[in-house]
Amino acid sequence: METEFLYHPHNYNRTDRAPAVMALGYFDGVHIGHQTVIRRAVEKAEAQGVEAVVMTFHPHPKAVLSPDVSEEDMRYITPLAHKEALIHALGVDRLIVISFDRTLASLTPQAFVDHYLLDLHAVEVVAGFDFSYGHKGRGTMETLPFHARGMLFQETIDQFSYDGEKVSSTRIRELIRDGAVGELPPLLNRDFSLYGEVASGEQRGRTIGFPTANIYCSQPYLLPAIGVYAVTLETDEARYQGVANVGYKPTFHSIQEGDPTVEVHLFDFSGDLYGCAVKVTWHDRIRGEIAFSGVEELKMQIDEDCRTAKAYFNEKG
Ligand SMILES: Cc1cc2nc3c(=O)[nH]c(=O)nc-3n(C[C@H](O)[C@H](O)[C@H](O)COP(=O)(O)O)c2cc1C
Ligand SMILES: Nc1ncnc2c1ncn2[C@@H]1O[C@H](COP(=O)(O)OP(=O)(O)OP(=O)(O)O)[C@@H](O)[C@H]1O
């Protein structure tokens, strides 16, 4: 799959580009609803012998338009590189990432269709029932035939629901913020994971009998709520079960500011993971983080956390 970044205004004309079926949306999380939209576009592109394209935007419109969220503060279920890998795995030929800024946001629905669908040679558009485009999202799948003037086919995908409610990035973000990681797999159609690298920590873990791999994420992931989780950690070579703490270690630090740390204690592992690229998968929440009055209490609690996580993995099989 090729990834192409486009900045407004681009200079392409329809004749410069290969014809494409385009799936449109932001697609944070590439959840099961997004997968339905993208798979349908791939299927249609194959049937017509044209390119299967996903058109997305970056950064998130909220980071550009909302006064309370800056681009630096923006956190994603799947930051761009992760989103790209998931979209690639769905069989897409090209991912077009349109740089989202105030100029792009202020395009009229007609200008969006002209410059980003027709000029980029979309022959068909696939999007969900609630996709919107153009200034203030005024363009919808209902207005698309009018703006496209007969130059496009379109297919609207019905709402994909789970437990009677729309599967959406917003719903998934709320569950992550609540730490409800066990509820995510049916919505994502995969486990909830992040990619990072093992960095060195304060080296205290080994002295208390629970060495931990500190996970550094160069991509802006939305982390699950502060607390302790049953997790698996994968390297290129192996997969381990363990327990993770997302937090500020209040037993040792009185100030809780900045990003929390993510550290993982692995079962049945002794060795060095420093510098390793890893995937952390969040399976179940165990508890919140506690300010213990001493190291002994903390050790007893982590020991219990390990037993809780092992029981979870045994039951899960
Ligand atoms: C499973 C697990 C649970 C933890 N729970 C807490 C906690 O409730 N409160 C706390 O202050 N620190 C908690 N920690 C963090 C430990 O304090 C930390 O691992 C230790 O201080 C080592 O830190 P270092 O790797 O930065 O040296 C937990 C760590 C793990 C692995
Ligand atoms: N549950 C769903 N069923 C069908 N289509 C969906 C569903 N969720 C999103 N889509 C479609 O997928 C594309 C990407 O949607 P978008 O990125 O806005 O996701 P979202 O999950 O609705 O996010 P948000 O919660 O931020 O509104 C759009 O075309 C949208 O209409």
Automatic annotation (TrEMBL):
Keywords: ATP-binding, FAD, Flavoprotein, FMN, Kinase, Multifunctional enzyme, Nucleotide-binding, Nucleotidyltransferase, Transferase
GO molecular function terms noted in the UniProt entry: ATP binding; FMN adenylyltransferase activity; riboflavin kinase activity
Homology family: Belongs to the ribF family.
Protein name: Riboflavin biosynthesis protein
Record organism: Salsuginibacillus halophilus
Domain Riboflavin kinase: 187-314
Enzyme Commission identifier(s): 2.7.1.26, 2.7.7.2
Catalytic activity, as annotated: riboflavin + ATP = FMN + ADP + H(+); FMN + ATP + H(+) = FAD + diphosphate
Biological process, per Gene Ontology: FAD biosynthetic process; FMN biosynthetic process; riboflavin biosynthetic process
Class of this enzyme: transferase
InterPro entries assigned: Cyt_trans-like (IPR004821), FAD_synthase (IPR015864), Riboflavin_kinase (IPR023468), Riboflavin_kinase_bac (IPR002606), Riboflavin_kinase_bac/euk (IPR015865), Riboflavin_kinase_dom_sf (IPR023465), Rossmann-like_a/b/a_fold (IPR014729)
Metabolic or biological pathway, per its Swiss-Prot or TrEMBL entry: Cofactor biosynthesis; FMN biosynthesis; FMN from riboflavin (ATP route): step 1/1; Cofactor biosynthesis; FAD biosynthesis; FAD from FMN: step 1/1
Pfam family, one: FAD_syn
Transcription is among the record's keywords: no
Gene3D superfamilies: HUPs, Riboflavin kinase-like
